[in-house]
Structure formats: C-alpha cells, structure tokens
Amino acid sequence: MKAIGELFDDLFRRAKATAAGQGMSLKQQFSEAVDERLRRERR
Length: 43
Prior knowledge:
Elements: H1 4-21, H2 26-42
C-alpha cells in the first residue's frame, strides 16, 4: 500500500506532465480542472 506522500507525488508528476504536454503551467492545469469539476457539480 502506498503512503499518502507517494500518492501525492505520483499525482503531481502526472499533472505536471499533462500540463507540459498541453503547453500550460501547472497552476493553469489545476485551475481548469477545479473549474471543470465545480461546473459539473452545479448541474
């Protein structure tokens, strides 16, 4: 079983790679992800 820190590290690496692949900053990636999630919850 992975420790919480290891899970966060894995998530961070995947998010960073996805952001770089899309030509955006990690901050922008997280902002858009949170915005999208909030929009879905309003429906």
